[in-house]
Amino acid sequence: MRKCNKCNISYNGNLRYCPLCQSDLVGDKTPNVFPIIKPKKKYFFYKFLFFIFALISMTCGFVEYNVAHQFIVTNYMIVSLATIYIFLVYFLNYHSDLFAVVNRVFLISFWLLIMWYFVLRESFIPAFLLPCLCLAIFLFNDIMIIIKQDRYVTRYAKFLFVNLLLSVLTISFVIFKAVTFKMLIYVVVFVDIVNLLSLVIFYKEALIEEFKKFFNI
Questions:
Q1: CB under 8 Å to 13, separation ≥6 — which residues?
Q2: pTM to 2 decimals?
Q3: pLDDT of 112-162, one tens digit each?
Q4: What is the maximum alpha-carbon separation in the chain?
Q5: pLDDT at 40
Q6: How far apart are CA 217 and CA 212, in angstroms?
Q7: Are 138 and 191 in contact (CB under 8 A)?
Q8: How many of the other CB atoms lie within 10 Å of CB of 165?
Q9: Cα(79)–Cα(128) distance, rounded to whole angstroms?
Q10: 3-class secondary structure per residue, the chain
Q11: Which has the closest alpha carbon to 104: 130, 137, 127?
């Protein structure tokens, strides 16, 4: 039988998280008391994700056309987002934790873009692609926090902080003068700081609990 030390409630089955507070359960797993029901396909999430990616592509195209009167970066953006979308759909069909998959795909995509930059040495990668990717994950996590509040912060605190810290790295491209168009990077850093302050101010207790569990304090 598994137990939640925070709620002081025991559960039968092989649950991983407490249904009430989303904390990790301790103890041995037991056979499920309820039959396993195959979850419905996540059509709504796929449509929502497609909408977000389309919005990012149109925004990138609008900015690039007004700045340089071309769509070269936008074409790369569309190909990149389409690749990420395909990977997301594939992973989500084989993994039950939807939100963890989205955050992991962001981390993988972030480092792939960094590697892509050092190979191609194209300034549009840190100037457009990386900031748009960071803003996309900010938007996704902010919406999830608004909907799920403490439950999302408690369960995915490590992803939230890693995403925020990685996004700060985008300012290094400005420091080392690797980009000429800096506006999107400044927007990312500003949104990053606002998100970080919001987490510390509104979810301080939940974050402290997660850090204690992570570092075994």
A1: 2, 29, 30, 31, 32, 33, 34
A2: 0.61
A3: 888 888 877 888 888 888 888 888 888 888 888 888 877 888 788 878 888
A4: 64
A5: 56
A6: 5
A7: yes
A8: 11
A9: 14
A10: CEEECCCCEEECCCCCECCCCCCECEECCCCCCCCCCCCCCCHHHHHHHHHHHHHHHHHHHHHHHHHHCCCHHHHHHHHHHHHHHHHHHHHHCCCCCHHHHHHHHHHHHHHHHHHHHHHHCCCHHHHHHHHHHHHHHHHHHHHHHHHHCHHHHHHCHHHHHHHHHHHHCCHHHHHCCCCCCCHHHHHHHHHHHHHHHHHHHHCHHHHHHHHHHHCCC
A11: 137
Dihedral angle over CA of 6, 29, 89, 118, nearest 10:
70
Amino acid at 120: L
Q: Which amino acid is at 145?
A: I
**Rounded CA separation 1/39 (Å):** 24
**What is d(CA 202, CA 216) in angstroms, rounded to the nearest whole number?**
23
* Side chain identity, residue 191: V
